[in-house]
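To: structure desk
From: M.T.
Subject: fold request, one chain
Message: Could you run this one when you get a chance? Sequence is below, nothing fancy, just the single chain.
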Amino acid sequence: MTDRPLQLGAQTALPASPEEAVLDRVPNPHPDADYVARFTCPEFTSLCPVTGQPDFAHLVIDYVPDQHLVESKSLKLYLASFRNHGAFHEDCTIAVGKKLVDLLKPRFLRIAGYWYPRGGIPIDVFWQTGKLPEGTWLPDTGVAPYRGRG
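Reply: Done. Structure tokens follow.
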């Protein structure tokens, strides 16, 4: 994080790519407590790097913050910046998780990418880092196993 102003409260254009997107962090008001913060993005989109066709996913990001939280407007802009970005499902999912870990240094983070099928096969991608602190409640992601993802 730099000394620049947060994107929160300011008119901010959609970044053209994930590389151009800026994630902001804010101080955790409860660094003494182990708790899970969850972000759900049910309409994540990117492009297939081979065909250029759109790919759709339902992302669930859970993390146990340490000193910082991700600022939600910047996260929304970052996730939306994938709309015109060509990458495989695995790359998109892991890139989001790693960028958050680099920014926040959380005690624990997991990301679940539930990708809608292409060619009849859904590709689901799961990644986590750190150990869930003992006694911390981590609910199920709430995304149904594939049956049309309804």
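Reply (cont.): The beta strands are 25-27, 37-47, 54-64, 68-70, 108-115, 124-130. Let me know if you need anything else for the meeting.
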